[in-house]
Design a protein that fits this description.
Radius of gyration: 20 Å
Structural class: alpha/beta
Low-confidence stretches: 1-9
Distance between the termini: 48 Å
Largest sheet: 4 strands, parallel
Number of domains: 2
Order of helices and strands: HEHEHEEHHHEEHHHHHH
Number of strands: 6
Number of helices: 12
Length: 289
Amino acid sequence: MITPEESIPTRNTNYRLAEDIFYVQFNEISFFIEDEDQENFFFCILKNLFPDIQIDKIFPLNGKDNVINESNENIGNKKKVFIVDKDFDDILNKINTNDNLFYLDRYSIENHLIEKDAIVEYIIGEKPKLKRADIDNDFDLEAQIQNINNKLNELIHLHLVVQNKCSSLKNVSLNHERFFDFNNGDFTIKSTQIDAYKVQIQNELSNVDGRLTLTSQLNKVKRVININNNELCIKHVPGKYLIKMIKQLIESLFGLVSRNVESFCYRMAENCSFHSLNGLKLSVEEYIN
């Protein structure tokens, strides 16, 4: 069964580009992003990040490749700014260096929502009688991120192998629930699912090149990137995993009603400082001025 949001027809890239032409009279700068389902969310963030720039509309182009292609077509146009997720592009040496193309400093925009104060405010919004000091004492964000990172570490390295060598296999699009149970306030790895994923990867590696082994490819990935602390976790681990798992933890810990992840992200964004986006802000301002 699909949700009401999923039943809304999507607008193709050509429609969005034509829309940009109409909004030239209203936008000082036109911002282009990847995903249509994040349009309202990103609009809220960009309006707060660039309060002195008139932005009436932003333009999702349905995928990173489309954003990069349009960036290529608009080199030198200071009225158009293209923003994409970092994903694993820095790790896999896939960064595009166009002047008008800007990468988030973290895996995705969801990673930039991970702020303790914003989480506390979300909890209070759901349960106004709770005291901030009690929430702060009961929820140790750093400890929870460390726990999540420990649980996700192997899976993330497997995803990196897939993106590097097995492009036909699904990876980060797989939900974390496929690989983890959540009971009594903690995540338990589903070993049978992880093992099945490893077999699938090894089979695909053998199809690509009979000399490749999963063990050797994992070792290569770990030499390139070792996600061994919270800072690296927040930077490199897919934000949809982190945000969904943090959401599950606080709903369990504080007895909150379970909201859909889109509503959760939007509410979080309303209370984020987004200091982690200062690098993006400065780079864009330097480009357009």
